[in-house]
Design brief:
alpha/beta; Four Helix Bundle (Hemerythrin (Met), subunit A); two-stranded antiparallel sheet; 10 strands; elongated; nucleotide-binding; SR_rcpt_FtsY
Amino acid sequence: MFDSLKKKLAGLFKKESKDDENLNINDKVNENISNKSENQESLFIKRDEFDERVQEILIESDVSFESAERIVEMLKNREKKLSRKISYDDIKSNLRSVLYDVLSQAKSDLDLLNVDKKPYVILFIGINGTGKTTTIGKIASYLKNNNKKVVIAAGDTFRAGAIEQISIIGEKTGTEVIKHDFGSDPASVAYDAIEHARARRIDYVLIDSAGRMQTNKNLLSEMKKIKRVARPDLTLLVLDGMIGNDAIEQAKTFMNEINFDGVVLTKLDTDARGGAVISVAMEIKKPIMFVGVGQGLNDIMRFDPDWYLDKIFSS
């Protein structure tokens, strides 16, 4: 997970030398402490060179150009009082601190397990292939594992196999699925699921929807209708964490056309670059509610900046 970004960042914290290019910076620092008179200069790096390399690494790792520029500017502002040459320990600490400031703004304060309203209605939107239906299953499992009652609305009535797929998810999680025939009005499915939940004192309604390209105006209009009818308490945009800056463009279009309250980033377990997390945090201005970290129905977690930073800065 995030191996490419992790390796590139690790390269920043190594002493580059002809005789030992691959020695980890932590080991090199320890070596220098014992040989201060010979190797004191290797503890430092020119700040301008470091800032330039940070920006390159971020862009190479799917962080948007604008976000990478802003991160480097934040880093420079933090280091203004330092000398032209700074220690590796300083730059590593400062970079992590800057990224934490960025990511902490995307951490949600909402505790989904402790909401007052019943039923609490969640609408899931996004294009095909993001893992939206699987994400619904994961969140259903998350809620049920915490002793909550859940019902799923099979709102994707446009795709032939979608109703069957969400029904299988329901069976696996032990969750009832409200469904109509293929081609029926998805807004009516959402309405029936909500009324079903009200009558039976069910805690949560999770509404699936047809995956659609964010440029398809007709389908976006249908989504607006679902939202008007269901009046969800929370609308979550499901984004594929592997598609990099395309995720930002998707999010911006959905924001303009439908609006949403938070993001679920999927497939992070297979994402080597890892920069999409940073771009989403900086540019979307909506909380990252959950991240998908595996293939199983329990492989979902609330987004935690420290978890992400531990992944990319671990040795």
